[in-house]
Design a protein that fits this description.
The chain is mostly helical and 127 residues long. It contains 4 helices and no strands. The radius of gyration is 18 Å and the shape is elongated. Bound molecules: heme C.
Length: 127
């Protein structure tokens, strides 16, 4: 009986993994389209997210390097910068609202779903 329970758990876990992973990949791919396109994020953060876009040289502080995966702003006061919620809020409302630089613009014009997809894409850029 116990063994069947364990096999059942393993199957449920496998099913969850199999259904979650493609969803994340699909989000990241959709996020790249927004990041490169209407988001114009690459102009500052660079085409591969290294913080080396065309406008980056003139900026201080520099646009975040997403390949490092280090984030600074804690938007929900939980003491942990860089959660999905934090990245979402910074992209939607801009960094200045959370004590960061005004040169990181808020993009409330982009849909929440597209911002979430960009968060997934940004996560995928970490080396
Ligand atoms: C005009 C240049 C510019 C553009 C365009 C820009 N950013 Fe930024 N971004 C910055 C700068 C500068 C920072 C660093 C802000 C700071 O340190 O206070 C930053 C920081 C960030 C961070 C890190 C927040 C943290 O907690 O560390 C994220 C995530 C981010 N940008 C996402 C985006 C996305 C997604 C887009 C496109 C929708 C975008 N940015 C467009 C300049 C830009």
């Amino acid at each position: 009986m116990k063994r069947y329970t364990m096999i059942g758990c393993a199957l449920v876990t496998a099913a969850l993994v199999l259904t979650q992973v493609p969803a994340v990949l699909a989000d990241a791919a959709a996020g790249k389209v927004v990041y490169d396109g209407v988001g114009a994020c690459a102009s500052c953060h660079g085409a591969t997210g290294k913080g080396d876009g065309a406008a980056a040289a003139a900026l201080n502080p520099k646009p975040r390097d997403f390949s490092a995966g280090d984030f600074a702003l804690d938007t929900d006061g939980d003491g942990q910068p860089g959660s999905d919620t934090d990245l979402f809020n910074v992209i939607k409302n801009g960094a200045a609202k959370y004590g960061g630089a005004a040169t990181m613009p808020g993009r409330a014009d982009i849909s929440d779903a597209d911002i979430k997809a960009m968060v997934a894409y940004i996560r995928s850029l970490k080396n």
